[in-house]
Write a structure and sequence with these properties.
Blueprint: H1 2-17, H2 19-24, H3 28-61, H4 68-92, H5 95-101, H6 108-142, H7 146-158, H8 161-178, H9 184-206, H10 213-219, H11 221-232, H12 234-245, H13 248-281, H14 301-314, H15 317-323, H16 325-340, H17 342-349, H18 354-369, H19 373-376, H20 384-387, H21 394-424, H22 428-455, H23 464-470, H24 472-494, H25 500-522
């Protein structure tokens, strides 16, 4: 069965990452695009290494050097759990791949294990990219023995297993429960977003501080951090003890726990896997059932295309759950500020005064990094050619995708703004900027995402996860969102002498002009 798992994992990774297209494509422009994305990815990795190295240096400087590995391991585990949870169900229970593989002479356990390990490979690389810079900084400053590096590399291999197994369990439960409902996709979307909201709110609540919390925590930083990590995620402490104290027993315990949980999860899942896949592929209603004859009514092309786009959007669980994370984070940030105050949120972010001075920008960059439009064209897949035959102007087609992004973000935006306006009661100018800046970020993200996806479409995908989470356009939009928010945040935090309102005004003007320019270019762009 080991050979089956290896071959199936290789096939799954090639489909998710587009590796065969990179190796064998004859289109030089497509290959050049891949190389450019590789260069941009290297730049992001350098930025990540600098950030992680800075965090490790800060921990050593504050006297918590022995907790560098624990803090990084806990951060990696939280990221792996959160982002795997929203894709575990669609990857594990990919119906198209299941229909192709079930007729092959392969064990059902090999199919399940291959899909799990396809997620594990990418998560393990993420763990290594976070752990290695932190280990390098700690090694340079503290000069540990060789066991620190050996145990660190060994621990990084096992690090993603436990959060990945937990996230897969949640994804399997959500998919299994949703598969028994009549409206399967809606049920899985609601369940997933509820769980994501609970995790995000819980992660913010873990770092809650009172008015004097920042100063007190800095004074006794190491004991507080150790206590928090020990209470919330003990395996991170085991890895830290193995690396810094050379405890081989802690490393063995750190490795055996996730392996045991993984074996138990795979054994239980394979008993229900076929039934869940069958329920997911079952039709919701019989032909003609519930049909009612109604009078036909004409709609404008823009309204018709927008309604079609909304139906397409909510028909995909992975599409909805991945693009709504930014909006949910915006609501959670607003709720945290409303109920705990700006100082408590500053304690969570680790930057005193950041929330009060840069709140409009913080609210806006979250939904701007993950707009629905970054995948809207690619999600059409091989049916995109049909869109070219519709008697609809290209401008209306593109505007419908932007409108869907705005309609989806609108409830979250309104809830966040109402909560903040009621809790903070800002003055006239501050209230205007609090309303305008996030709105312009959402509009800019929608227009920029569509422009990027027009340049970097992916139509020959087999799994929607590749389009939503691993395509070049979504990656570019994350970088664009970070840059669009990082510039004003850098000015606000690095130059306190500059009035915040002036930065808000310049940011709003830049976002507005960029959105208008992109909207004007959409109708004049080349046909894809």
């Amino acid at each position: 069965m080991g050979r089956q798992i290896r071959l199936l994992t290789q096939i799954t990774l090639c489909n998710l990452l587009g590796l065969n297209e990179l190796r064998f494509a004859r289109d030089k422009r497509k290959k050049t695009r891949y190389y450019l994305m590789g260069g941009l990815g290297c730049l992001v990795l350098v930025m990540l290494a600098v950030y992680v190295g800075g965090a490790a240096w800060g921990l050593v400087y504050l006297g918590a050097g022995d907790l560098v590995a624990a803090a990084l391991a806990m951060g990696v585990s939280l990221i792996v759990f959160l982002f795997t949870m929203v894709k575990a169900g669609p990857v594990l229970f990919d119906q198209r791949a299941f229909e192709k593989q079930i007729v092959l002479p392969v064990d059902i356990r090999a199919v399940i294990a291959s899909r799990f390990f396809s997620m594990y490979v990418t998560d393990m690389l993420l763990g290594l990219l976070v752990m290695l810079p932190g280990m390098a900084v700690y090694g340079f400053m503290e000069r540990p023995g060789i066991t620190f590096y050996l145990y660190g590399l060994a621990g990084s291999v096992f690090l993603p297993l436990l959060p990945l197994t937990a996230a897969s369990l949640v994804g399997a439960l959500i998919t299994g429960i949703g598969s028994r409902w009549k409206r399967k996709n809606l049920a899985m979307i609601v369940l997933t977003m509820i769980f994501v909201g609970v995790v995000l709110a819980g992660s913010m609540g873990m770092a809650r501080m009172d008015e004097s919390g920042m100063e007190e925590t800095l004074r006794r930083f190491a004991p507080v951090l150790r206590e928090q990590i020990s209470r919330l995620y003990p395996p991170a402490i085991w890895l830290s003890e193995a690396m810094t104290e050379g405890k081989i027993s802690s490393l063995i315990l750190f490795a055996l726990l996730p392996l045991g949980c993984l074996a138990l999860f795979l054994e239980i899942l394979q008993r229900f896997y076929g039934k869940i896949c069958a329920l997911l592929s079952a039709g919701g209603a019989k032909a003609g059932e519930g049909y009612k004859e109604k009078e036909l009514a004409g709609k404008s092309p823009l309204i018709s295309m927008t309604r079609r786009e909304l139906r397409r959007y909510f028909s995909s669980v992975v599409y909805v759950t991945n693009t709504l994370v930014g909006e949910m984070m915006m609501v959670i940030l607003a709720a945290a500020v409303s109920f705990t105050g700006t100082q408590a949120v500053d304690g969570l972010l680790g930057l005193p005064g950041m929330t009060q001075r840069a709140l409009p920008v913080l609210l806006g960059i979250m939904p701007a990094m993950m707009p629905t439009t970054a995948s809207a064209i690619s999600m059409e897949g091989r049916q995109w050619w049909m869109m070219q035959t519709f008697p609809v102007r290209e401008k209306d087609l593109m505007r419908s995708k932007v409108l869907v992004n705005l309609l989806v973000a609108a409830p979250f935006y309104l809830a966040s703004e109402l909560a903040l306006l009621f809790a903070l009661r800002p003055g006239g100018a501050d209230a205007v900027f609090l309303l305008i800046v996030p709105a312009l970020y959402i509009l800019f993200g929608a227009e920029a995402g569509l422009a990027v996806n027009r340049r970097l479409p992916v139509f020959d995908w087999e799994n929607e996860t590749r389009v939503v989470k691993q395509s070049a356009s979504t990656f570019v939009m994350v970088v664009a969102g970070v840059i669009s928010g990082g510039v004003p945040l850098g000015i606000l935090l690095g130059f306190p002498m500059i009035p915040a309102r002036a930065v808000y005004a310049l940011t709003a003007a830049a976002l507005g002009m960029a959105a208008v320019g992109l909207e004007f270019a959409q109708g004049r762009g080349k046909q894809i």
